[in-house]
Amino acid sequence: MSDHAETVTHRNDAIVLMTAGGANPRLVINALAPMFANLTVIEEQPEAKSVLLKRRARKLGWIAALGQLATMVVSRLGKNAVRRRSEAIISAHGLSDAVNPKITVIHVPSLNDPACHEAVARLQPKAVVTVSCRILSRQTLAAIPCPVINLHAGINPAYRGQMGGYWALASGDAENFGATVHLVDAGIDTGDSLYEVRPKPEKGDTMMTYPLLLTAAAIPSVVQALDDALTGRLKPYQPGGISKMHYNPTIWTWLWNGVAKGVW
Fold first, then answer.
1. Which residues make Cβ contacts (< 8 Å) with residue 76, sequence separation at least 6?
2. Could you give the C-alpha distances from 20 to 148, 177, 232, in angstroms and in order?
3. In a 3-state reduction of DSSP, which class is residue 10?
4. Residue 20: which region, alpha, beta or left (left: phi > 0; alpha: psi -120 to 50)?
5. Cα separations (Å) of 145 from 111, 126, 163?
6. Given the DSSP bridges, would you call strands 179-183 and 193-197 parallel, antiparallel or unpaired?
7. What's the confidence (pLDDT) of residue 49?
8. Of 221, 141, 216, which Cα lies nearest the Cα of 181?
9. Is 80 helix (H, G, I), strand (E, B) or coil?
10. What CATH code is carried by the domain that includes residue 226?
11. Helix axes 23-32, 210-230, angle to 10 degrees
């Protein structure tokens, strides 16, 4: 069998994409659907902001948690202001963030809920992709009988967690503005890497468009990683460098970096 025929055959295998929903995951879903005939989406309910706030406050304190929440609110409110740039990114990569009613979506309370485990057992996927969702528990990972691949909008291990692209620029490390496609383990963006991409942000890009740009640029690597998984050709590696966890910037940090460094 030729490599092309093998790829076509394996692309009929069951694939699952896990997400909490949103425009960026829809870019990935819509890009994968024409290539992988048996794609199913398992979508969880997003965690309540109050739950996120309390968890962040336990880790970082209430002042930092509230400052981060304020930045998240500003970012959400600013989406309309950057809509033209967002549309340009989507168009430049030949993508779509529209809802596709032809794609099967299974709704669950949480990806760590037994309902998700039951769906996985029923679907028996040969590969799973996660995009913009909560951390999978050890129980959930144990219930998935195949490689789990994550699209992370940051270069691991230096920019684990949230807003990796933003923090690379704010740290004066523009060369590491990028995204990582990696295997999922029980940690936060600590699984072995598969591919990295490093697109160049434009002058008008901000915290509100960095994740979109990185997601769009990484989609071909997600496709390649899925092909690798389905054909038994995954080549994971442990990236070097300092490992650092990042969160959304506080509102005062965001304003300071914008004024002092031009990184918004």
1. none
2. 16, 24, 28
3. helix
4. alpha
5. 15, 7, 30
6. antiparallel
7. 83
8. 221
9. helix
10. 3.40.50.170
11. 30
Tokens of 199: 């697109």
Beta carbons of 147 and 10 less than 8 angstroms apart: no
**Which residues constitute the domain of residue 94?**
3-261
> Would you say 69 and 53 are in contact if contact means Cβ atoms under 8 Å apart?
yes
Backbone angles phi, psi at 61, to 5 degrees: 95, 155
For 202-218, the pLDDT digits (tens) are: 998 999 999 999 999 99
Q: What integer pLDDT is reported at residue 9 of this predicted model?
A: 66
Domain count, the chain: 1
> Is residue 74 within 8 Å of residue 252, measured between CB atoms?
no
DSSP string, 167-182: HHHHTT-GGG--EEEE
Residues β-bridged to residue 107:
43
| 100/52 Cα distance (integer angstroms) | 29
User: Are 137 and 185 contacting, i.e. CB atoms less than 8 angstroms apart?
Assistant: no
**How far apart, in whole angstroms, are the C-alpha atoms of residue 192 and residue 253?**
31
**Mean pLDDT along residues 39-54:** 92
CA distances from 180 to 26, 109, 127, 176, 200 (A): 18, 27, 17, 11, 15
